[in-house]
Fold this sequence. Notes:
Blueprint: E1 4-7, E2 16-21, E3 31-35, H1 48-51, E4 67-68, E5 71-72, H2 75-93, E6 98-102, H3 108-122, E7 127-128, H4 134-143, H5 152-157, E8 160-164, H6 167-170, H7 173-186, E9 189-193, E10 206-208, H8 215-228, H9 234-240, E11 241-242, H10 247-251, H11 257-264, H12 268-280, E12 284-288, H13 297-309, E13 319-322, H14 329-335, H15 350-360, H16 373-381, E14 387-391, H17 396-399, E15 408-413, E16 426-429, E17 438-441, E18 446-450, H18 463-473, H19 485-497, H20 515-519, E19 524-525, E20 543-544
Parallel strand pairs: 6-7, 6-14, 8-9, 8-12, 9-10, 11-20, 12-13, 14-15, 15-16
Antiparallel strand pairs: 1-2, 2-3, 4-5, 4-16, 17-18, 18-19
Amino acid sequence: MTAIKTLCGRCAMGCGVRAMAGLSDDDARGVFIEGDRIHPTNMGWLCPAGEALAADTGLDGRLLHPLLAGKRVGRDRAIAHAARRLSDIIAQHGPASVALHVAGDLPTEDYFAANKLMKGFIGSAHIDVPWNNIATRAQIAAFGEDVMPASGEDVDGAELILAIGAGVLRRHPVLAHRVAMAREERGTQLVIVDPDPGARLLPADLHLAPASGSVATLLGGLLLHLHDADLLDRSFVAKNVAVPDGYWEALRPGHDLWSVAGMTGLPIAAIREFQELSARAPSMVTMFDPDVGDGDARAAEAILALHLVTGRIGQPGAAPFALPGAPNAMGAREVGCIATALAAHRDFSADALASVSRFWSTDRVVVTPGLSGDALREAIGDGLIKVLLMLGDAPAALLDAFPDNRPFTLFAGDRLDPAMADRIDLAIPMPGLLERDGTITGADRLISRQRSVFALPGEARPGWWIVTQIARAMGWHDAFHYERAADIYREHARLSVYQGAGRLLNLRRHAPLSNPAYQELTPWRWGEVPFDGGHFPTSDGRARLLRFWD
């Protein structure tokens, strides 16, 4: 029996698995799952969530055929209806009346096609995602580009690992396993900062439980201590970091030792121990998950500042490591499938708009960022959104925001919640997790292939295919010429380097990739060692120190 190498796809780590299907004549959907020993993320180790993939392959409850107003229709009719309704509503209410929600676990090719349709041809940037993009905003502000500087190998080589929130380890068991191995084999020290008393159940060299919302204050106190004790990497900062005038003087109020103790509720001795551990470690990785719950933008910015002022970035074992809040949030961010980016790490500047317009051969590119989250829900409630496209899941938060005169809703996914069915005008089936084919980018920029283990059931088709067919039916056939996922991946690679000198996102090596080579693609990480030598993709080549306490 041939083993198919694919991905788990249940968290941001992007672990490799080997799947063997058809082991029993009695169970056509039965599968045996094991870790892929040569995948660099998990090296054969698999957590319970990955092992449970084998238990979620049945077709009971699956959406297998298009439904229009709850009744089964042919796929061609479903596509034609979607295109006609979209065209009519855009003509009547304008492109800004269209919004898109995407799930967090789709292949990058799905995100690319959806983003291109929305921003390049419909002309709307209203894209809602199930993560809050705090890391995106912080990294762009500090580094000049949304680049994750850390890798799994950095965790293996760090002398100190700082985990902001024990959940970052609980939600990513494979990463926790690597941390445990580093502690056992190299004597790496682990500090866990989490107000939840349950965090103390995890083994660590130091546990800190600051008051809720005070992590940024704790880190600000650490920064001030490093400055006053002359423990900054002043040479690195002078050459590679732009420090705002009066930065250290402005940081001082509220971040001295006594103020930090008062704000965090931590004993003075524990704060001093934390500061001394952080100061003397020659290399450090700070893991945090800003996309969980409400997130903490101030803490994320403080973490980036900490690594910049100590020069612990752009070298092995030293980097901030923001764990995305969805399995393929990195892939979506790479192609720009969020409300605040255009495409391929480009913003909405005049140069970026002109470049993307030329590449896509369109004059309909949206010129400003769109709405998402609470802002999009408010626009829905105000009746400004007339079309909601949902790729991968149907979020109750958005559907609940609709006024009584609900606009057109199109859902494409593998399962339709019966409680949501009466709110969906048109439903089109998509592949389940072990039926998907494309690429996924892990939390550390590692691009890996997700390969289908089972044939597509019923009339299910990939998300990119559904988007492509709707776009063609709306008149944009030439721009959406895709016949396979590899076509989209190659275009993504070409766009990443098109008139874009200076960006670290560079997939040039895969622009000419053949179809067989795409099928056999092995994991690879773009960006090599980001910020190596202190070079940042900003106008002056220097990172920015953020005033996170403002």
